[in-house]
Amino acid sequence: MEKHSKARLEELYVKDIRPELQKELGLKNIMEVPKIEKIVVNVGVTGSITDSKLVQTVAEAITDIAGQTAVRTKSKKSIAGFKLRENMPIGVKVTLRKKRMYEFLDKLINLALPKVRDFQGVNPQLDGQGNYNLGIKEWIIFPELDQGFNEKTFGMNITIQTSAKKDEHGYALLKKFNMPFRTQGKR
Question: What distance in Å separates the CA atoms of residue 106 and residue 1, rounded to the nearest whole number?
């Protein structure tokens, strides 16, 4: 395997998407064209207060899905009502950049999202700054996890951070990557 090979979506972006977006958005400089900067995958582990090994299991699963070692997130302060103490592990996250980011996006769009039951598209709303947040109810849609992985299912939040200054530009970028946005008429 070549050391500096590009991911499939990265090549697609450089060769096709970037020039098309420059023309469509009426941008003068190629450097103004929005690009994906990073993808953050975050999983909150609700049962971690009673079962300390659960965070380790989730970390291994997210590492398999993302192809990069996951980091445990810890609570910032104690909350007695939730039996939560400061610095207790409560979740797992991984930040993807460059090749791994494009490989994860490819897997998400082309393999995982089509496996969602009764899938009608993802919410087309961005955050007001050109970034996109996607909540997934069950992580079992990813091909790395077999059906009997764990009796508990976990949801995850996927944040796609773009360099777009406007939501319209971020939406156009993700649409070019074939992000399956729901049509505006459906809810």
Answer: 19
